[in-house]
Amino acid sequence: MISFLGLCIQNLIQTIKYIVGGNIKRDSVLARAAMISYDSLPIALSIVFIAAVVIALQVSKQFLMTGAESYVGGFLAVALVRELAPGFAALAISARAGTAVSAEIANMKVTSQVDALKTLKVDPVGYYFAPRIIAGAITIPMVVVLAELFGILGGMIVSYFAIGLHPNRYMSSVWLWLNTRDIYISIFKGFLFGIVIPLVCATQGYETKGGAKGVGISTTQAAIKATVFLLMTDLIVTFIFYVIN
Hints:
single chain, 88% helix, 0% strand, elongated
């Protein structure tokens, strides 16, 4: 895992050099943005919405028993914005789009398309990695914000039908508890996740060997490693912003 992290850092540096060189095509970035975020939007929003509904069902009656039902919205909003929405949305995108990125690049590697680019004196790392990383870094924070909105809405609906909590009281506690700093940090998490997912999955695909069987193995490894690195990134960001500061 440490050696793989080193490969990811090397590829990221090479990709940044490629981006600085101005070799990126806008159409390529837009196509990758649609594949990474737009196509993953339904599953990401569904997972966060269901998670928010389940949590609201679990805590709303407990809050009602203690007379603190007005705080259900604030509790759920803080949990969603700080952790659940960025984390669940990133994991959904990683499972859906990250594996596709790995399989696509792995297939190019085993069919010698990478060697063809080298023959044409084109940097294959920059050519394959840059559009995907730019697309992820720009669009995944947008998915995170939408997931937070959907999760808060789901909690409001459940709270109303489960304990009769009026939407006005629910939203009042949301605005009372939620801090704009939390929103900024969640967007920053989405930005980092947007870099980590395509970087890790593309690196795993680029290291593929062994034909069609290697493509399958590489795709599985990409899903595992992307999950690990996402959780590590989440831990580091949370520690920096909520423990140190």
